[in-house]
Structure formats: C-alpha cells, structure tokens
Amino acid sequence: MKKQKSTADVVVPKKKVGFKTYMKKYWQLYVMLLFPLLYLGIFKYTPMSYIQIAFKKYKINKSIWEMPWADNFGFEYFIDAFSNPDFLDALRNTILLNLLDLVIGFSIPIIFALILNELVFKRFKRVVQTIAYMPHFLSWVIICGLALQMFAPSNGLVNMFLNNMGMETVHFLDEPIHWIFTYIFLGIWQSFGWNSIVYLAAIAGINPELYEAAEVDGAGRWRKIWHVTLPGIKSTIVILLIMNLGNILGSGFDRPFALQNNLVMDVAEVLSTFVYKNGILGLKFSLTTAIGFFQSIVCVFFLLLANWISRKMGERGIW
After folding, report:
1. How far apart are alpha carbons 70 and 50 in whole angstroms?
2. Which domain holds residue 31?
3. Contact (CB, 8 A) for 57 and 286
4. Which letter does DSSP use for residue 17 in this model?
5. Each residue's pLDDT tens digit, 91-128
C-alpha cells in the first residue's frame, strides 16, 4: 500500500508577487529612501567630478571640463608636492601625530568603558559618564584657550604648581617634544568619553548568562573581564581599529590649527593646515587637490589592508 502524504509534508508553492503589487505595498519606503539617495548624489558623488582639478591647470574663469591638462601627463602637481620640503614635513608630522593618537589613545576609551561597566553605584556612574562626555562638545578654540591658561610658562596653573613643588618650568606649548605630548593628551581628553559609548553599547549586548556561568566556575572580576567582556567586544574593537587605520593620513583641521604656533611649526604643521595655507590662502587649488587625492588613496589602501589582515586573523572586518 502506498503511504499517504500528510498535510505537513505537502509543500505549497509560493505565489510570485508582481512588481506592481510589490510597489503598491511598499512604495512609501522607496519614497523615504529617495531623499537620502538624492542627498548622496548631489552633495557626495557630484563633487567627485572636481577631482580632475588635481590633473589640470586651474582656471577660475573656466569649467573643469575646459581647463587644460597639467604637464607630465597630468601629474605635474603631484611631482611638485613631493618635491616640496614643506609638504614632506607636513606628511611626516601627520603620520607621526596620527600614529601616536592611535597607539596611545585607542585603548583609553576601552579601559574607561570597562571601568564604567564595573561600577556598582549607578548614580556615580552617570555623573562620571557626563563629566567624561562634556569635553566632546567643546570646540578646539575653547580647548586651546583653556590650554593656554593651564600650560602657560609663567602664570599657567600647571607650571605654578610645579614651581611650588620645586620643579622647573615646563614649556608645554613652546617646545616641540612637549607640544607633541600636550597635543596627544588634549586629543585623548576631548574624545575618550564620547568614544567609549560604542564600547559600552557593545558590553551591554553581552549575554548576562556568560557572566553567571563564569561566576559559577569561580571566576573573579578580573577573570570575567578577560574571558567574557573583552571577547564579547573584540569585533567592535577590530572594526574601530580598522577605521582608525584608514584615517592614518587624515587629520582634522581645527585641532592642529588652534594649538600650533611659530615656535613648534616643525612638528605642528600637518597636511590639513598645509592645504589651508597653500590652497585657500595661496590660491594653489590644483596642488592642494592633488594632495587631497593622495590622502584619499593612501587612506583607502590602509583601510583595505587592515580589513584584509583582520579577515585573515579570523575576524569579520568591515565587509
């Protein structure tokens, strides 16, 4: 006798939904999607056509399509940049300061997030979080003014304290070595609280049962941090590290510009301030566009390299 199929074994073929029916049901979502797509097209992708200025002789009275091509097969301004000692100094300073930011400052938000997560008193935890977030909302002009008052050689609060302790005056903003570490310290102070939000969110997503299991196995607080919390946020750490490596040649303008002075220009001039002084003030638009294009290519290379290494090490990476 043939075994009869039960109703559970019968597979009902799904009806294909037509395009008109689908759009009639979901057209509102596509209308909502239209506005961000228009924004990206108008303000992000259309300006990319002006990258041609890096390969052309800029003429203010002509469109980018009518400008003549630069010499040396269009690479005239790239050659000029790399033969300019000021550009090479700015390139060196940019790499140095960004590497120090990455090496010294990348782990600070992680440590701060781990400490906050271990705090028992919630009210005290909220107060600490608020105080740590506040510098993020200050402009670098305000931070620079505070730094001048705090680190001034003669009447600065820090140097007055050092002098009262019998120590010599430290020129935090007037000597290159001291300026570098003051620059890094202020950058970490301004951003570590805000950057820790991502790690706190990742920690909140860890399954509490893992902590309970670790506690049953006799793990203390440090063991739970090492074996549960850190592995739980490892993917977040890797993604943010990749993004930071992708910005190794990118530097903000306001921070170095606000803190630099004539006494420390050998270490304070970075690519963003070099582009401002030569491009906007010096009207060398083709040269500075070439420098910006070079920055973008190098940043994309480091981004792809860091993502490839993370994938080889077993992490997900960005994509």
Report:
1. 15
2. 19-52
3. yes
4. P
5. 999 999 999 999 999 999 999 999 998 888 888 888 99
